[in-house]
Amino acid sequence: MQEHRRYCSQLLVLLVLFIISLYVVPILGKNGNGLIEVDVGVILDADDQMVGKVSQTCISMALEDFYALNQNHNTTRIVLHKRDSKGDVVEAASAAIDLLKNVQVQAILGPQRSSQAEFVIDIGNKTQVPIISQATSPSLSPTDNPYFIRGAQNGSSQVESLTAVVQAFGWREVVLIYEDTDYGRGVVPFLTDSFQGISTQIKHRSVLSLSASDDHILEELYKLMTMQTRVFVVHMLPFLASRFFTKVKQAEMMNKGYVWIITDGLTSLLDYMDPTIINSMQGVIGVKPYVPKSSKLENFKVRWRKRFRQENPNVDIFEMNVFGLWAYDSATALAMAVGRSGIGVSKFKKPVAKENLTDLAAIGISEMGPRLLQSLQNIEFNGLSGKFHLLNGHLRPLSFEIVNVIGKGDREVGFWTQKYGISKNLSFSSSKNYSTNKDDLGAIIWPGESNVVPKGWELPTGEPKLRVGVPVKGGFMEFVSVERDSQTNAVIATGFCIDVFKEVMDHYLPYAVPYEFLPFETPDGESAGSYDDLVYQISLGLKFYVHLQNYDAVVGDVTIVSNRSRFVDFTLPYTESGVAMVVPFEDDDRKNAWIFMKPLNMDLWLTTGVFFVFTGFMVWAFEHRVNEEFRGPPSKQVGMIFWFSFSTLVFAHKEKLISNLSRFVIIVWVFVVLVLTSSYTASLTSMLTVQKLKPSVTNISDLILSKEYVGYQQGSFVKGLLKNKTFDTSKLKDYGTFEQYDEALSNGSKNGGVAAIIDELPYIRLFLSNPKYCAKYTMVGPFYKTAGFGFAFPKGSSLVPDISRAVLNVTEQNVMTRIEKGWLGEGATCAEQDGARVTSDSLTLDSFKGLFIVAVVASFSALILFLSIFLYENWDTFTSNDSSIREKLIAMAKTFDEEKDNSSYASKRKLPIGEGMAVPATATTDCPQSPATSDSQLAEWIFSPDEGLSTIETSTPIHETIEIVEINEER
After folding, report:
1. What is annotated about its quaternary structure and interactions (predicted)?
2. Helices in 748-798 by DSSP H: which ranges?
3. Among 69, 310, 786, 842, which lies 20 to 30 A Cα-Cα from 277?
4. Please, are residues 186 and 193 in contact by the beta-carbon 8 Å criterion?
């Protein structure tokens, strides 16, 4: 029994060992030491000494360093399977298929060329195997290729740093030179958009093939020499750049005045280029990813040089580059991701149908690829190249170093960061803002060993002078005039606009630009067209007229308008802007029989009349009960209301006012009338004198409605403006001189002339400054805004910003005043012109609202007080319960109509007096005369008319009695 049990136990052990041998041993890996081996492919160009060989050594050392530091914590180990792409796209694709089909790798490092990476990435997407490449072309995007991990900075990340350099020095034009590869073409759209954002124009794109001959390169360079632009941005790798810059030196384009800027792909590999090539690049500016210095990096470089010599004894280059550092960090990131993902032995899901399958389709789909991709996408650590952060498949860009090629290599002159822009170092204060100031860069030695910043453009080769077109015209010579020397036939241009241009170019431009004036004329010396035609000549690529020629600029009285700016660029204006009318003075008001009605407008007349009646009614209401002069028949009372109120207009009212309320109202009203009459008198006087200078037309709409003839200057844009204003084209007439202006305005629209001349302000100011014209005509407007006169140049011309700044300097100096006085005079000095600006219009109600409000408040306040007193005196009648409301109102109306018995007034009435007068003794006894008052004074006081005493009859006609009012005087 025991033997049977022992036998069963042995069988069980053998069975377990068999199962382990079938399932566990393969999982432990090929080496049998318990580690899981993960197969990873490496596709590099073994012939590329600068990138391929360097990266190959870096990848091997990266895995060795990683596992040496993490040997106690890893259960997986990457096994590299290297393949040589031989610099060929097909070889790279074949290597990828071989690695996936025969080795079943779970990830591929490389290739590093963008053209090769594009095919390998497609294979990785189909098989779901992550491809970790240092290809920098922006056309390869992890967004479109989910299994592509870019282990390098995107080529588009350097665009902002290149733009910042161009912006810092104010260059407005650049030429792009790039190789005709995926690498070269990929960054061009990003550069174009970025330069456009800072108003820098790409004047030309020069594309060179990798197989371009030296003669072709020289031909392209000579073509670039004929252009104005002298700022060149070169985007190519060392293979083509070495030949290109040799020819640049040969063509003498590495001299003073030229600017050469190289991108990071070339700048990062300058240490690998031949010294003779570096000698041809003296003064070049470049940008490259910044690699922070560290002891870890320095120690690695020492170990790498030793290892590289051992592996490549025939190679003389022993310098590390950023692509090798990215390869090192990419391998490290892959090793970290493999350890975190916990993947096992590589397996591929094979397709169900196995017949007639291509090699790529037969590979299948990796089971571990998605898990490894997820671990890779957001990995972050401090690597040799700096902070290595893979964010959504991209290596997050950090800083760029700006260098200057001097001597045997490059020299650091500054840095660029996305947050702070250009700076001399990477230590920033919290208050620093984004900057593109060239002063934040170190000293730069430009081509030709120059310390002067190139302006970025030069006059084209073979065109020593700037060809400046000027208009030819028969009038308005003060602005521009063209003549020819009788002996030499040389063009002589004069005038206000010409002098401003000469001042700008000769004294305020920071560099010399030779120029010559070319008239815009036909062979017989006449004007060759309108100003629009002249401006359009700048943009012509072909000469459509045999007798015309294209120009580099146009100078003259050329107005800046929108339709012209579509073809040319204008400088800042140097004159005032606007379009106005010139019209004759109107002198008909003094002959108008109803001019006396014009000082006040109709609203004010009506309001004043209403207030006259209202005030008369208020006075009548207050005086009706106590004043005999406001009593009597209704017709008399109505007449008194109108008479009394309107008599205040001339202060001719003679009626005595008894009530204090009416006196209060009249005092306020008389003040209102005083202000009204004074204002009326002043306005009427002004109309009879100053207003004789009133313009005959005050609104352009009146000209359109009345269909009057209107004049404008020949060749001016004003004609198009008037058409847009819906003027009848048959009513428009053009004139070429001020004399024609005068004749047309004098004749008038009905006699073969015009009702108005519409022109720009500079011409109108000059016209009205002439004593012959300023007394007859005046300006109305401006009613249309323009930008003024400017100088025209081709679209994107580098001269425009510099000349605009020079124009500002000229206009801000006294030199502009001197030029204006010399050509345009001092301006109008006519008294008529000064008076025309002070026209007199009718007074409106708005100017007197305050006065009328005061009058209304005073009248209604008095009325409320009067009604309160009246109701108080008749309160018994108002509150009586014996009658209806109608009867009460009738009773109160009768009471109001009755004469009030004023006791204080009646006690002072005069009695009838005969020829003799006796004073009763009682009067003298009761009221002794004050010693200080004489008899004559007493009598005078008694009969003073100001007291309003009246006489009454007594029963004795012979005798008269006088009431003596006692006067108490304090001694």
Report:
1. May form heteromers.
2. 761-768, 771-774
3. 310
4. no
